[in-house]
Amino acid sequence: MIMKSVRNGWVRSDISMVGKNVIITGANAGIGFITTRDLVIRGGRVILACRNMELAMAAKDTILKETGKEEKCVVVKKLDLSSLQSIRDFAHDINQTERRIDVLINNAGVMLCPETKTKDGFESHFGVNHLGHFLLTNLLLDLLKHSAPSRVVIVASEAHRIGKTYIQWSDMNSGEGLDTYCRSKLMNILFARELSDRLKGTGVTVNSLHPGVIRSGLWHHLHDEELSIWRWVLHQSMNPFMKMFWKSPEYGAQTTIYCSVAPELLNVTGKYFSDCAIAYESGEAKSKRNAVKLWNISCELTGINELITFPTHRL
């Protein structure tokens, strides 16, 4: 009989990750940091895939100090999701040096950032939150299949229901502000559903999740008065509510942890989770037509069809 992994909203601490290799993007702060620390405590070896190496090394030092684990349990590697070349370099490194990936957690993201573009010219929310993780995951698929049973966990959001979340297929870089963030979260769920369909029978599961509205650094672009006065005013007005009603990073990380470790989810795939339970996506997020269309466009924009297969992995 498979045990229930959650008690009162918290994932049981006795679920072991000993012998498991995990990659998590954006792991130096917020729920990424909390998730990493939790998985290390459980005995897992976690690769922090981060853009800022200084912050990543500081996070590693803190985790090792707080957990008392050996240094080999936490590995830091450079990954800039705003650069397709950086993603290729990271994936090539992983494919050459790692024997297995048990869990890939696509956690990193940007939110309400200034109207900027990635190094490859994509709108930042679209380029980082969707295209970056799309390319990364595809480049690691062979190793994930080799490691089966393995998991891909994609951090999405209930924001996929908000605003003008329909995808403007004629101009994927269109939109601004909250709409572009919400649309990228819709893309996360569509990607998870389509990838799950394509991986059926391989032993690799793919699920997406809503972590909750969390008091984390994801909101940091609201803090800077020099960037936009309205963002600063919005943050000041929201701050009391953040402290009263929003989840702590520790509580917000539970659904990510649950999807990564729960034994009862071994064969569960293509689902959307919230509060450590299966939830319901919007109608747009369930559209197979949209999922396939997004997949094809993403392949074209990231050059997936032109990639050379990596050498056979060492056994």
Would you give an account of this structure?
With 315 residues, the chain is an alpha/beta fold. The chain is built from 10 helices and 10 strands. The strands form 2 sheets. It has an 8-stranded mixed β-sheet with strand order 5-4-3-6-7-8-9-10, with helices on both faces. The protein has a two-stranded antiparallel sheet with strand order 1-2. Strand 4 (45-50), helix 2 (53-67) and strand 5 form a beta-alpha-beta unit. The longest helix is centred in the middle third of the chain and has 21 residues, at 178-198. It is globular and about 50 Å long.
- Oligomer state equals single chain
Strand order of the largest sheet: 5-4-3-6-7-8-9-10
Element-by-element helix/strand order: EEEHEHEHEHHEHEHHHEEH
Q: What's the mean pLDDT score?
A: 88
Number of strands: 10
Low-confidence stretches are 217-227, 240-245, 308-315
Number of helices, where a helix is a run of at least 4 consecutive DSSP H or I residues: 10
What's the N-to-C terminus distance?
32 Å
Shape: globular
How much of the sequence lies in strands comes to 5-15%
Give the biggest beta sheet.
Answer: 8 strands, mixed
Radius of gyration: 18 Å
